[in-house]
Design goal:
This protein is of the alpha+beta class. The chain is built from 5 helices and 6 strands, in the order ααβββαβαβαβ. Helix 1 crosses helix 4. It is globular and about 45 Å long.
Length: 167
């Protein structure tokens, strides 16, 4: 599986199925919760948004999941272009963010938060690879994404997972 990882510039234009992306996120959330249980480590308020560039039946825009279905997030105008510029032209980018208001009481928890976000990103990555998708995990947050996420609380972008099929 690890040999099949590719850079975002190497993805094909084959569309990704939205249900598959929702399944990847669901599985990774379950794994992350098993390794970092909220009752022990606190609830970081993680959210995973989908920037759909080539996801079947979804507009090229930012989406959030609810009950396994994706819906369009308002106020993200121009974000698709910025995500493609920063992370490449993958069919799908999963944007992982956390609610930083939950850190206000425990500022020393930032390191654990990053580790937990990494666990979530790599859970998505491994699930994607197991299903034959190509995947890339990007550890640099983008200010433009954080700006949009702040419209939904004191949320900050932490990591991005790009996925699709490889060349």
């Amino acid at each position: 599986m690890l040999e099949r990882r590719v850079r975002a510039q190497e993805f094909t234009a084959t569309p990704v199925e939205p249900g598959l992306v929702a399944d990847l996120v669901h599985e990774a959330r379950g794994a992350q919760e098993r390794y970092w249980p909220s009752e022990v480590h606190g609830d970081a308020g993680f959210a995973v948004h989908l920037m759909a560039s080539n996801v079947r039946d979804l507009a090229r825009d930012l989406h959030a999941a609810e009950d396994g279905s994706w819906f369009r997030v308002p106020h993200a105008k121009g974000l698709a272009e910025e995500v493609s510029r920063v992370y490449g032209d993958a069919p799908a980018h999963l944007l992982i963010s956390a609610d930083f208001e939950r850190l206000a009481e425990r500022p020393a928890a930032y390191g654990a938060l990053i580790s937990r976000a990494g666990s979530l990103a790599h859970g998505i990555w491994f699930s994607a690879l197991a299903r034959g998708l190509a995947c890339a995990v990007h550890d640099r947050p983008a200010r433009a994404i954080t700006s949009v996420m702040r419209g939904y609380g004191n949320r900050r972008h932490l990591l991005t997972v790009s996925l699709g099929t490889s060349c």
